[in-house]
Design brief:
The chain is of the alpha+beta class. The protein is about 45% helix and about 25% strand. It has 4 helices and 9 strands, in the order ααβββββββαββα. The strands form 2 sheets. It has a 5-stranded antiparallel sheet, covered by helices on one side. It has a 4-stranded antiparallel sheet with strand order 5-4-8-9, covered by helices on one side. A hairpin with a 4-residue loop joins strand 1 and strand 2.
Length: about 200
């Protein structure tokens, strides 16, 4: 009788160990936390943003229709021209459209400029991904701080709009960045002087 009890006890013990080991395996195979997936999504979004930040013609990018399209604006001061290249959502591939207009508002007065299409190889007649204007009035107004500008694009009967920043606004942003770097360098230089003074004191 004692042997039977001992055997039952041993079997029960082995069963409990098996159950415990099975539970550990399940815990080790738990899915990755949601935070990892969020970080991955953030990385993809950051990559997409960085990818779109570099325009093919080194112009200024304007988001149209919530970034469904992009207009790359190139201001050639030497030639006195404004060129607009239409790009897809990634701001990399050309997208042919029917019409490009620049609407301006200055001193409460609206003014509109229709850009001329430039024929590009492989694009359907009546559409283009490249538009230009040599209108001196447009070039002048786009350099005016007090002028509000908007690019309007017609695609298959639908309009896409986007606000156009002044070219020198971007230059000022770069200048501020340089000033910020100089400030950091000056701070580092000051710290070096403080450290040297401290060494002399010792």
């Amino acid at each position: 009788m004692k042997r039977i009890v001992l055997r039952l006890t041993a079997v029960t013990f082995v069963a409990l160990v098996m159950i415990a080991l099975t539970g550990c395996d399940k815990s080790e195979q738990a899915p990755a936390p949601a935070g990892d997936a969020a970080e991955s999504d953030h990385s993809h979004a950051h990559d997409a943003h960085s990818h779109a930040a570099h325009a093919p013609h080194d112009g200024d990018l304007v988001e149209l229709g919530g970034a469904a399209l992009h207009a790359e604006v190139v201001h050639d001061e030497a030639a006195g021209t404004i060129a607009i290249y239409l790009l897809d959502g990634s701001a990399q591939d050309p997208t042919a459209v029917e019409k490009v207009v620049v609407n301006l508002s200055h001193d409460g007065q609206p003014e509109q400029f229709v850009l001329e299409a430039v024929a590009e190889a492989g694009e359907t007649a009546g559409t283009s991904s490249h538009f230009t204007s040599s209108d001196a009035r447009l070039v002048e107004l786009l350099d005016d701080d007090h002028v509000e500008a908007q690019v309007v694009v017609d695609v298959a009967g639908k309009q896409y709009r986007g606000a156009l920043a002044h070219a020198h606004d971007h230059a000022e942003d770069h200048d501020h960045g340089d000033d910020h770097d100089h400030a950091h360098n000056d701070d580092d230089h000051d710290h070096d002087h403080v450290d040297e003074a401290g060494d002399h004191d010792h």
